[in-house]
UniProtKB/TrEMBL annotation:
Bifunctional enzyme that catalyzes the formation of 4-diphosphocytidyl-2-C-methyl-D-erythritol from CTP and 2-C-methyl-D-erythritol 4-phosphate (MEP) (IspD), and catalyzes the conversion of 4-diphosphocytidyl-2-C-methyl-D-erythritol 2-phosphate (CDP-ME2P) to 2-C-methyl-D-erythritol 2,4-cyclodiphosphate (ME-CPP) with a corresponding release of cytidine 5-monophosphate (CMP) (IspF). It comes from Falsiroseomonas oleicola. This is Bifunctional enzyme IspD/IspF. The chain holds residues 1 to 223 of 381 of the full protein. Pathway: Isoprenoid biosynthesis; isopentenyl diphosphate biosynthesis via DXP pathway; isopentenyl diphosphate from 1-deoxy-D-xylulose 5-phosphate: step 2/6; Isoprenoid biosynthesis; isopentenyl diphosphate biosynthesis via DXP pathway; isopentenyl diphosphate from 1-deoxy-D-xylulose 5-phosphate: step 4/6. GO terms for molecular function: 2-C-methyl-D-erythritol 2,4-cyclodiphosphate synthase activity; 2-C-methyl-D-erythritol 4-phosphate cytidylyltransferase activity. The keyword Nucleotidyltransferase applies. Its EC number is 2.7.7.60, 4.6.1.12.
Amino acid sequence: MTSVALLMAAGSGSRFGADRPKQYLSLAGRPVLRHAAEALLRDGGVDAILPVCASDSLAMVAAILEGLPTLPPVVGGATRQASVRAGLEALAGDPPALVLVHDGARPVVPPGTVPALLAALERHPGAIPAQPVTDTLKRGEAGLIQATVPRAGLFRAQTPQAFRFAPLLAAHRTATAEATDDAQLLEAAGLAVALLPGHEQNIKITWPEDLARMEAALTPPLL
Ligand code: C5P
């Protein structure tokens, strides 16, 4: 079965506050995006990567991913959801059976993640890695706690998320609300999404200290 991984890199990374979006920053001597792509491909099962990026980054992204099995980069949209949709639509003419969606700002895809996700698609239309919430959760407003939210049964969703292509495209085409991940759109369509174990090292680089932590974890290589 063919499978393509969308590598999402069209975000501006405004929370990080660097001169470049976080997916292009250097981590252990190579761009975060390159780490993410190599990690996606490491275990096999992904035939090609389709990068989705800003219109002024097409050439840079192609250069960063040089030598890897990539399709020509696609221009993303104003939101992550719009960017994923752009990637899916670019594949729709010659659709793969399976698609993975991965944040370009997540340089670590732990070994075994991709094979486990693809295996789960034999039983379910979607599958994601997720970590149980271990901190106590508070709802807050104006600096004061409003409530303690029971954490039992709560998970932190990670990427790569894997889907059968047709239902994910349909879910994107019929979406009415903004979703922060792709599983949410399948859930809204009433389709089952499997929860697989995530990994603490699968960090989405969001704040400068995330990059420092990853740097420490990757030198010398931990995985
Ligand atoms: O903003 P957030 O951290 O949720 O972004 C997750 C991933 O989605 C990042 O890799 C980012 O580049 C990507 N993204 C995108 N298009 C957007 C916003 C985010 O491809 N408009």
